[in-house]
Amino acid sequence: MTAFPSSTRVVPPGSDVPQHVAIIMDGNGRWATSRRLPRVAGHAKGVDAVRRTVDACARRGVRFLTLFAFSSENWRRPPDEVSVLMRLFITALEREVVQLHDNGIRLRVIGDLSAFEPRLRQLIAQAETRTAGNTRMTLSVAANYGGRWDILQAFRALLAERPELADDPSQLDEEALSAKLAMAWAPEPDLFIRTGGEQRISNFLLWQLAYTELYFTDALWPDFDAAALDLAFASFRSRERRFGRTSAQLAADGLAR
Ligand code: IPE
Ligand code: IPE
Ligand code: MG
Fold first, then answer.
1. Ligand 2 centroid to 27 CA: how many Å?
2. Angle value at C-alpha 103, between 17 and 138, nearest 5 degrees
3. Which of 2, 21, 26, 143 has a C-alpha 20 to 30 A away from that of 203?
4. CA of 161 to the centre of ligand 1 (A)
């Protein structure tokens, strides 16, 4: 049993401010191209938007912020762009962790880290250790992350721990599996934001988004700021989260919007 039961088994508590926000930070390349700059200039500018968003979320009382930084499919990009993204990640870890730590933010990196160079893995480990005791907000950076990878690695870990499940699969339940997911220590996201105008999940948190409110904005990631975040939060507040129930049931329980 995890600290946060599956939303399909137990209806999670509601709140005006989303407790867990998950963002696909998309549109860096288009931001740069529209200014006749190389795509990587958009990625560099995107780091400023990360800083702004982390700060704005912490100030608004968000407990978990998860940012999709590099997908398991982004290795398909030109090698030059991939190596700039890796360098940016390294620089950000070198420069930003002190500030995160001072702001009481715990950093976690989720994804298949085995593909990263040793220096990057070492910086990730150091940053996670340094910020482990912070409780104001947990910032999870999804790097070489894929939703399908996550579900598969969870199955593998579960079967390695409980091989008897292979002989009696009826014993397998949602909570056993979700306890092995990369973000088992966080509740499922309340709000998903994708910038850049595309309306797709792109292999982000497939399992965890089951009942997440989805919000899409045309704003390109380097332009995203506290005002854009507040628009997303306002949309979130206007949603009726029924988790399978009817509006009348919510009204009867005093939960209607
Ligand atoms: C998101 O911006 C950043 C990463 C995927 C690393 P993009 O680089 O995908 O920007 P667009 O979608 O090409 O504009
Ligand atoms: C999703 O953006 C991944 C990240 C933002 C890290 P992409 O730009 O890679 O997604 P697609 O290819 O448009 O679906
Ligand atoms: Mg993109």
1. 9
2. 50
3. 2
4. 37
Q: How many CB atoms lie within 10 A of CB 171?
A: 10
Rounded to whole angstroms, how far apart are CA atoms 76 and 68? Answer: 16
Q: Give me 144's structure tokens.
A: 């070489």
Whether 8 and 211 have beta carbons less than 8 Å apart is answered as yes
Interior angle at CA 109, CA 105 and CA 110, nearest 5: 135
**Pocket perturbation via mutation, ligand 1, pick of 25, 26, 204 by most ligand atoms within 8 A of CB:** 26
Residue 68 near ligand 2, beta carbon < 6 Å: yes
Cβ atoms within 10 Å, residue 117: 10
Q: Is 74 an annotated catalytic residue?
A: yes
> Does residue 4 fall inside a structural domain?
no
Structural domain contains residue 179: no
* CATH number of the domain that residue 98 is part of: 3.40.1180.10
Query: 29: exposed, middle or buried (C-beta count within 10 Å: 0-12, 13-18, 19+)?
Result: buried
**Inside any domain, residue 170:** no
Let me know if 130 is exposed, middle or buried by CB neighbors in 10 A (0-12, 13-18, 19+): middle
Q: Is the CB of 187 under 6 A from ligand 1?
A: no
In a domain, 123, yes or no: yes
Strand pairing category for 137-145 and 64-71: parallel
Domain around 25: 20-149+188-252
pTM of model > 0.90 = yes
Q: Catalytic annotation on 103?
A: no
Q: Tell me the pLDDT tens digit for each residue of 29-71.
A: 999 999 999 999 999 999 999 999 999 999 999 999 999 999 9
- Tens digits of per-residue pLDDT, 165-224? 999 999 999 999 999 999 999 999 999 999 999 999 999 999 999 999 999 999 999 999
